[in-house]
Structures are given as C-alpha cells and as structure tokens.
Amino acid sequence: MRSSLAPGIKLITSFSRDSWYRGFILLLTFLFYTSYHLSRKPISVVKSQLHRNCSTVIRPADLNITNNDTWCDWAPFDQDNYQTLFGAIDNSFLVAYAIGMFFSGIFGERLPLRYYLTAGMVLSGIFTSLFGLGYYMNIHSVWYYAFVQAMNGLVQTTGWPAVVACVGNWFGKGKRGFIMGVWNSHTSVGNILGSLIAGVFVSSAWGMSFIVPGIIIFSTGVLCFFFLVEHPEDVNCTAPQHHQESAEQEPLLRNSSSNEEIFSSPPPGAANSVIEHSEEPAEAISFCGALKIPGVVEFSLCLLFAKLVSYTFLYWLPLYIANVAHFDPKGAGDMSTLFDVGGILGGVVAGLVSDYTGGRASTCCVMLIVAAPMLFVYNHVGQNGVPTTIGMLLVCGALVNGPYALITTAVSADLGTHESLRGNSRALSTVTAIIDGTGSIGAALGPLLAGVISPTGWNNVFYMLITADVLACLLLSRLVYKEIRGWCGYHTRMRGFKEI
After folding, report:
1. Cα–Cα distance list, 382 to 22, 192, 385, 386, 389 (Å)
2. How far is CA 20 from CA 12, 13, 142, 147, 450, in A?
3. Phi, psi of 418, rounded to the nearest 5 degrees
4. Distances, alpha carbon 399 to alpha carbons 149, 162, 347, 354, in Å
5. Could you report how far apart the first and last alpha carbons of the chain are, in Å?
6. How far apart (Å, rounded) are the C-alpha atoms in residues 31 and 23?
C-alpha cells in the first residue's frame, strides 16, 4: 500500500513554476532594498554619540582635558553649532540623492537592471564603510564626512527605480497595493536593522556602526549579480497582465478585478496577447512624456511633503528621544525602531484599503489628515512614560509612513503601467524616479529645516511637520474628488440606474 504524497511536497507542487519565480524575485528585491535603508540609518543613531552631555559621562582618570563640557564629543561636532553641522551632513546625502534620482530612472530604463543594481550596492557599501573609517583614521573634518555622504547619496539612487521596475516587470495589478504594502516593509525593516546594528557599536566604537552595514550592502550587491532575473521572459515565465480592458473601467488608478491573484499567470488568451505585443520593442519614455501621465504630478508633489515628514523622523527621532526623554544613545536608537514597526503596519493597511476601495489618493488623504493631530499629541504627551512613548511611536509611524509607502510602491507601479502608455512597460523606472525624486527634495528639506529650527525648540519642528502633512493632503484633493465621483457613478450603476 502506497502512502499519500507528503503534505510538504503537496504544498510545493501546488505552486506553479511562475509563482516560485515571482516569490523568489519578491524576496530578492526585498533583501536588496532592506540593505539600502540599513546602510542609511546609522548616522541618526551615531549623532547622539558624536555630541553628548559630557557632564554625565565618567571621565577616565588618565585623560588630560581642557574642557569639561566637550571632552567626550567628536570634533568638529563638539561646538555649539553641532546641530547645523548634522543638518549639513544629512543634506549632503539627501540633496545628492534628490538630484541623482531624476537621472537614475532614465539610466535604469536603458541599462540592464542587474548590473545597475549591483554597481549601486557595491559602491554604496564602499562609501558607507568610508564614513566609519573616519573613526579609525581619526578624521575630524566635516568636509570629509559631507563628501562621503554626498557620494553615497548619489550611488544609492540606483536602488529604488530599479527594484520597483523589476517588481513591476514580474507582477500584474491584482492586489498590487497589498503585495507592495507588505514588500515595502523593507524600508522599515532596513531602518530597524540599521538602528539595532548601529546601537551595538555606537558606545564603544561608532565606526563599526557604519562598516558593518557597508559590508552587508556590498554582499547583497554580489548576490544581485549572481541571482537577479529582470524579466519573466528571460526564464521562460509568463509576463503579467497589467491591464484588463473594460467599458466600465472608471478611472485614474482603478485596479483590475480583485479576484485576480498576483502570483498567478494571466489567462491563455491574455498571455498570448502580451507575448505578441512584446515582440515589438518599445522606446523608453521621455521625462516630459512621463510627466503627462495622469496623476504623476499630483502624487509627486504630495510625496514631497510626505517624505519631508518621514525623513525628518528618520534622521532626527533618536536625537529627539535622547534630548527630550533622556535616553542614552543606544536606548534612543532602539526606541526609535518602534516608529518603523508602525510604518510596516501602516504600509500594509494602506495597501489593503486601497485595493479594496480602488482609491489610492483617498487612502493617502485620510491617513495624512489623521497624522497631523497625532503628531501634535505625540509632541505634547508622547514622552509621559515608556508605554505612552511606545504607543504614540507605533501610531505616528503607521500614519506617516503609510501614505509614503503606498505612493512609492503601488501608485508608482500603477502610473508606470498606466493605460495611456498603451502597453509600453519601459516607463516604469522613469515614473518611479520622478515620483521618488520629487519626494527626495522633501526628504532633503525636512532634516535641513529640523537642523535650523530645532535650536528654537522641538515644538517648532513639529509645527513644521504638521504643516507639511496638511499640504500633502491638499495636493491630492483633485484626485480624491475624482475617485469619489467614480465611486458614486459605480454605485449608481450597481443600483440599476443609467447615467446620462
């Protein structure tokens, strides 16, 4: 008597070859961008070590010092203008990143993604490690650290357009918001791991807080070279179906049927049509052509302000916690990871809701509206005990990073495969770069403004963040109105009335 097939084997064989490849690409790109964010995070943790309250630090008996207030600080961050210097270093990275992002998408459409990503991660590993080597080489020039950060920001622009383009090549629109919401947790996972790794070394040898993440992203670059598959056709898999033609299709970013499984292959007829269409190579879209795609400008400007808020927290939250709640550098870094844990939950919820409702803009708008008062509450009561701090960080992280995650993933992929492109899939990297590049301008402005405003009081920093959230919401008002009209029209037809 033969036994039945083992449950594990049944599970393995229940997925098609295409599904296994899609899952593999999703996991691989998740690891790639996790390493990108992991290598960006250490600077925010190390700041509180570079400039400390030396009066609370035990001074070695054999240390000959002339200044009791700054003996434990790392020059040149031992002066009263240390916050301005931190802001300058942050912006060396972020301005270079913002400028480079607009060109990165253009290169990404025209170069092999595998080589492009590999080069970006290897170079990023080198520059991240060079920052940490400043500790061992006893470098005290702010220009050295600013230059290394600027070069790192430039090479890190290779990451986002390339991984989104790769995922867009493999996945159709069905449940894209949910899948990409889960996938986009790589941002928060990278931030969390970066904080934890930096926290291990920050008090003993802060240079290793950069060198270890540098080695990790360098290693993932090697992994990319050996294993990344850019297109399903390269391994004889079926290309995804990006659009479902329908006379009832309402609009702007309406998803295809919610019953379409994102890991499944399209119907035979649809697959043939995609393959036949792909035989004619399409030209990469121009920068101006990408701007004409409906929704690109609005979502790009919205992301500018949403990313301003998110990156201000990314770079300044550990220092804020250390100053206001009086945590040590490691404790402040560990506590700040809760903001990213909330960001994971917010990204998944935003993706689920937008898939169910079909309203990407409306989902972002609602979360931004709620985020503004929650930021105000966090600033005033968020430090009243550890439980309150934990709860407020989780809530604020979800509300701030939810819209940011949705726009940079599902919305970018939707617009990059928009129906107005008529099947030209070579717009995805350019559209992603425009949206994220515009957002990166806000990412550069946020930490810079925080560095300028924070000496006047943290309250003013939070007022700036609240204003940015409100502006981000207002910029989506036209798209929200259009989505609401689409819903009203849809429900009218469902009740049996004919629109005139």
Report:
1. 42, 20, 8, 9, 5
2. 9, 10, 48, 42, 45
3. -65, 150
4. 29, 26, 9, 14
5. 69
6. 12
- Comparing CA positions, the residue from 120, 296, 327, 326 lying closest to residue 224 is 120
Q: Which residues contact 103 (CB under 8 A, 6 or more apart)?
A: 157, 433
Q: What are phi and psi of 51, to 5 degrees?
A: -135, 115
Token digits of residue 83 = 């916050």
Q: Give the span between the Cα atoms of 89 and 83, in whole angstroms.
A: 10
Choose among 464, 443, 444, 442: nearest CA to 453: 464
Three-class secondary structure of residue 236 per DSSP: coil
Q: How far apart are CA 50 and CA 248, in angstroms?
A: 59
- Look up residue 229 and give its two tokens: 């598959």
For the stretch 184-218, pLDDT in tens is 788 889 988 998 899 899 888 899 999 999 999 99
Per-residue model confidence (pLDDT) at position 427:
64
What are the backbone angles phi and psi of residue 246, rounded to the nearest 5°? -160, 140
Going by C-alpha positions, the residue among 167, 234, 245 that lies closest to residue 428 is 167
Looking at residue 170, its amino acid is: W
pTM (2 decimals)?
A: 0.72
pLDDT digits (tens, 9 = 90+) for 114-161: 999 999 999 999 999 999 999 999 999 999 999 999 999 999 999 988
As a whole number of angstroms, the distance between CA 494 and CA 289 comes to: 36
The answer to whether the Cα torsion of 89, 407, 164, 109 is positive or negative is: negative
List C-alpha distances in Å: 29 to 79, 120, 154, 328, 391: 42, 14, 20, 34, 31
Neighbours of 434 (CB within 10 A): 28
The beta strands (E) that lie in 247-297 are given as: none
Phi, psi of 16 (to 5 degrees): -75, 170
Q: What is the pLDDT, as a whole number, of residue 55?
A: 65
Listed in sequence order, the residues at least 6 apart from 393 whose beta carbon sits closer than 8 Å to its beta carbon are: 335, 336, 338, 339, 342, 378, 382
For residue 68, the number of C-alpha atoms closer than 13 Å in the C-beta half-sphere is 3
Nearest to 464 by CA among 299, 300, 312, 301: 312
CB 483 within 8 Å of CB 359? yes
Q: What sign does the CA torsion over 313, 96, 137, 40 have?
A: positive
Closest Cα to residue 160, out of 336, 354, 413? Answer: 413
Q: What is the mean pLDDT of each run of 10 residues along the chain (500 residues)?
A: 76 84 92 94 86 69 62 79 84 88 78 92 97 93 94 92 83 65 84 90 90 96 94 86 46 41 46 43 64 82 91 85 79 85 89 84 92 91 81 91 83 64 59 82 86 86 93 91 81 45
Buried/exposed 350-373: b ≥16 CB within 10 Å, e otherwise: bbbbbbeebbbbbbbbbbbeebbe
Structure tokens at 447: 């930490």
